[in-house]
Amino acid sequence: MSKNSILVINCGSSSLKFSVINPETFDESLNGLAERLGSAQGSISWKVGGQKQSRPLGKSGHDDAIKALVDLLREQQLMACIEAIGHRVVHGGEKFTASSLITEEALKGIEDCCHLAPLHNPAHLKGIRAVKRFFPGLAQVAVFDTAFHQTMPAENYLYAIPYHLYREHGLRRYGMHGTSYRFVSKKASDMLGLDYSSSAILVAHLGNGASACAIKDGKSLDTTMGLTPLEGLVMGTRSGDIDPNVFSFLNKRCGYSLEEITDILNKKSGLLGLSEINNDCRVIEDAAKEGNAHAQLTLDVFCNVLAKKLAGFAAEMGRIDALVFTGGIGENSSLIRKNVLKRLSIFGFKVDEVINNATCRGKSGVITQADSPIAMVVGTNEELMIARDTHDLVSSLS
Ligand code: ADP
């Protein structure tokens, strides 16, 4: 069997997502999730050939999950086709401007960024170390969410706070979803026959986490997420931009601790907090359709914040070759797309209602009329991008 596939791993603090992808044919032969790691109810579930299966892991950590994954790959006779392993890593700080082979130096670099992503980077390191033990001899690659945004100019990444906080602590805007932006903007450019290196593309990545990005000449010029994923757009449970004094207000007036406020803004706000219904956009859309005015208001806030950010980015880029919607909401919600484009009518956007209503996940394409600037839907595939980067870096070794 030829070594034609990449094992893609996304390791969280209590979960580990995995998939086996052929980076050339895009075929995914296996995907799955080990979850509740660290508790007594750990389990691993996977999908192969359309069939879902699972088994309990009991009290288990990242090492046990990787061991269970090795057993699974052996059972499915996939072990021999793994060329290398690609890891999603959330934070690469200023050190990583592109994906990197995992060497001792790279491990140290990821460790040095732990203070920037204290929930994520330590979990990635656990996963990388466990993989090293159970897949000796296979190269590993780190693909960073932040790396694509390292091209942002200082005027876009600096906060207007005492400069020494940046100099001494790296306190600046980094942005996230970079792997998705790279994939989606290049695909949109190819679909439209643009020259990527001189294009101006806006992307709205709208999932449970959401952000937008201005991509000029194939490089990130500006993005809505900041030091952490909390900044920017209204998200499933995150507030997005707020007045930073909300922290002292909630502390002094309501008696919440720092941890409680952080929890409120990250896990109880956004669509969930505002609607008091759900964090899932579908549920809020259904409620709005049934006449729930509060649900409608929540959708209006979501669209308004997004449209204002996109309009600002358009001004920064000077033109819009394409506005791309991606992520669960971007790919599936014709209503959100329509309402955002309506709010951007100053740029001349005119939706093709029939095409927009028929466009959902798995159906990429233009959703605007012929005499409108282009808005389109492109399905994101971060795992494929990680597999491709891993394959490219490993191939360059030989
Ligand atoms: P994540 O950010 O976790 O990767 P996804 O990109 O998969 O999430 O997006 C998940 C979200 O997509 C769901 O929470 C839901 O709000 C939204 N979504 C999925 N399908 C639809 C739909 N048909 N209409 C509106 N929103 C949808």
Short description:
The protein has about 400 residues and is an alpha/beta fold.
List keywords for this structure.
Nucleotidyltransferase, domain 5, binds adenosine-5'-diphosphate, about 40% helix, 2 domains, alpha/beta
Portion in strands: 15-25%
User: Can you give the helix content as a percent range?
Assistant: 25-40%
Largest sheet: 8 strands, mixed
CATH topology of the largest domain: Nucleotidyltransferase, domain 5
Which geometry do the CA atoms define? globular
Count of DSSP E strands? 14
Low-pLDDT stretches? none
- The count of domains is 2
The average pLDDT is 96
What class do helices, strands and sheet pairing give? alpha/beta
Put simply, the count of helices is 15
Return the CATH class of the largest domain: Alpha Beta
First-last Cα distance? 19 Å
